[in-house]
Design brief:
The structure is a single chain. The protein is an alpha+beta fold. The protein has helices spanning 78-84, 99-120, 124-128, 131-144, 146-150, 167-280, 288-295, 300-313, 325-338, and strands spanning 4-8, 13-19, 22-28, 31-35, 39-45, 49-58, 64-75, 88-89, 153-165. The strands form three sheets. A four-stranded antiparallel sheet has the order 3-2-5-8, with helices on one face. A three-stranded antiparallel sheet has the order 6-7-9. α2 (99-120) crosses α4 (131-144). The longest helix has 114 residues, at 167-280. It is rod-shaped and about 235 Å long. It starts with a strand and ends with a helix.
């Protein structure tokens, strides 16, 4: 009515109310009445925005690469942004111009500028594997960009979703990679077989070394056994020699003993013979008849036997001799009774 309007904004919108070119009120989430003919309202969204992008660049080996990603940002200084871009709304709350797209395009252009110098200095293969480095380049380029700072934009993050080569080059890389992987697989099979052969060789070598070691030990055992046998035989020989020496010593001592005993017996016999000879020497020249008489044997038979001996010695001188049977019988009976 009469040009007086009412307008309301949410809490995520920063509002600048200009009256006759001067700011009358500003802030977030305002709700107010205004006179439309002399008023101008600027509404700037304060929430964070996710800006997708995709652009192509050429690597140093003249290959095209497509980079797809996303940039997150928010309005850090709404008054600075309102001085550079038009965010004026109508009485119904709609933007008169679509400068938000212009803002997004400027951010994408700065991101592409930050990426181009990096992509131009690397090869296609390196570019495909450099997503993280591209993210860092975009983020650093945007944060240090004078154009972005003049717009009052605060960059939150930059993400690279994919880096792709052209379809023909992608197929060529796939073929090359497949061949390389096949070669690596073949090399792995070769190395695995070679490793198995090497392990088998080591096992056989270890077995041979073990057999050699066993044979060497067996040889040492045999040599040690021979040395033991030789030593045992030498010890037995020494024992036998010692035994023989001992037997010889015993025999020598026995010989000496026998010789000494013989000498002693001989000396004793000589002594006894000398004693007997000395004892009997006085009787050597005496007639046996005298010795018999000196014996003084009272046995009549002894005397009879002496008489018979005298008769026998003088038989040539005796003509006839008569001996009574009684005398012989008495003599024989006496001998028989003694037996």
């Amino acid at each position: 009515m009469f040009g007086i309007k009412h307008i309301k904004f949410d809490s995520m919108t920063y509002v600048l109310h200009y009256v006759n070119g001067n700011i009358k009120r500003e802030g977030r989430g305002l709700s107010f009445f205004y006179f439309s003919p002399n008023s101008s309202i600027v509404a700037i969204p304060m929430g964070s925005n996710d800006l997708p992008f995709i652009f192509s660049e050429t690597t140093n080996d003249y290959q095209s690469v497509s980079i797809q990603g996303q940039i997150s940002y928010k309005i850090g200084n709404p008054k600075t942004l309102s001085d550079n871009l038009d965010f004026t709304v109508t009485d119904d709350g709609f933007y008169k111009k679509n400068d938000i797209e212009k803002l997004n395009q400027r951010i994408i252009n700065e991101a592409q500028t930050a990426t181009a110098s990096f992509i131009h200095g690397i090869s296609l293969k390196e570019a495909i594997r450099s997503a993280k480095k591209i993210e860092v380049n975009i983020l650093d380029g945007l944060k240090t960009s004078q154009a972005i700072n003049m717009l009052g934009i605060e960059i939150l993050s930059a993400s690279i979703l994919s880096i792709q080569a052209s379809p023909e080059m992608a197929r060529a890389l796939e073929t090359e990679t497949r061949e390389k992987l096949q070669q690596e697989a073949d090399q792995a099979i070769y190395e695995r077989r070679n490793f198995a052969v090497e392990q088998e060789r080591k096992i056989k070598e270890s077995e041979l070394n073990t057999e050699i070691a066993v044979e060497e030990k067996q040889k040492q055992i045999e040599e040690k056994k021979m040395e033991s046998d030789v030593q045992r035989a030498e010890n037995d020989r020494k024992l036998r020699e010692m035994q023989l020496d001992a037997d010889i010593a015993v025999e020598n001592q026995r010989k000496q003993l026998i010789e000494q005993r013989t000498a002693n017996d001989k000396k004793e016999a000589e002594t006894q013979g000398y004693v007997i000879e000395t004892t009997l020497k006085p009787y050597k020249d005496i007639d046996w008849k005298i010795l018999t008489a000196l014996n003084n044997n009272p046995d009549p038979k002894f005397n009879i036997s002496l008489a018979f001996r005298q008769l026998a010695e003088n038989a040539d001188k005796i003509g006839n001799l008569n001996i009574s049977p009684e005398l012989l019988e008495s003599i024989l009976n006496d001998k028989t009774s003694k037996k």
